[in-house]
Amino acid sequence: MPPLPRLEPGSVWLVGAGPGDPGLLTLHAYNALQQADVIVHDALIAQEVLDLAGPNAVFEFAGKRGGHRSCSQAEITQRLIHLAREGKRIVRLKGGDPFVFGRGGEEALALAEAGIPLRVVPGVTSGLAALTAAGIPATTRNTNAAITFATGHFADDGPGDTDWRSIAKAGHPLILYMAVQTLGSIADALIEGGLAPDMPVAVISNATTPRQHILDTRLDRAHDDAIAACIEAPAIVAIGENVRLREKLARHMDVSAFGATLEQA
Ligand code: SAH
Predict the structure, then answer these.
(1) What single DSSP character describes residue 221?
(2) Which protein residue's CA is at the shortest distance from atom 6 of ligand 1?
(3) Span 116-132, pLDDT tens digits
(4) Tens digit of pLDDT for each residue in 195-219?
(5) What is the edge-to-edge ordering of all strands in the sheet holding 200-205?
(6) DSSP 3-state assignment of 15?
(7) Which atom of ligand 1 is nearest to the CA of 179?
(8) Helix, strand, coil: what percent of the chain each, to 5?
(9) CA neighbor of 240 nearest in space, from 213, 214, 219
(10) Cβ–ligand 1 contact at 76 (below 6 Å)
């Protein structure tokens, strides 16, 4: 093990837990779980990841489950600040990377404003892990020199509508988070913006877990096919020429290492 930092009492580490498979945790994330007094976590954290906590860690659940109301962002940050002021060593565990579409940025800003000592541990984001696990290179020199990450879901007070037509015009492959429900209207707008209706699409659910499922489809049918296949959340939608490469790669790939089971929302 390389030398790893000490989690000091009264501080919060905002830690990325990766997409599901505990093998995709970082050593920093493992080090954090081992030292925490309190682990405040979301729904999409695999039980096998939580099992890596030290013996005295207390878990607090801060996500949405079984249709119950999730804690508001303000409630979560207030709780973190309260625990820090009590002198606890706190890990705020978020799925994937804490700063990618998971409101980790908002939490970090609130903690910084409150003067709480903070460290942020990057994680493997599900968008990239899902593509890779499905045999879709995010970039190759023959397909694309850029890629776009986007969310299909906005907070009520969020930044408003994404300009999907302009995104289509740019022509880069897309990695969409939280987009299964809105896929129909996103696909329509992308086609209006100039993407080919037969552009290959892969919908990858429960990536890097034993329930990983991949739906291969095309842009104009993606929404209907996803409904027919009863795609489970969480899922990543990949759209672009690079998705075609999966055909060549996937059958040669060993996915037997994906041993985790996601705790379902
Ligand atoms: N910070 C997270 C994303 C949080 S938003 C990250 O970096 O991965 C939650 C969305 O992430 C889900 O709706 C889904 O689109 C995606 N997601 C998270 N885990 C996933 C998984 N194992 N497989 C597929 N998609 C996943």
Answers:
(1) G
(2) 96
(3) 999 999 999 999 999 99
(4) 999 999 999 999 999 999 999 999 9
(5) 148-151, 174-177, 235-239, 200-205, 213-218
(6) strand
(7) 15
(8) 30, 20, 50
(9) 219
(10) no
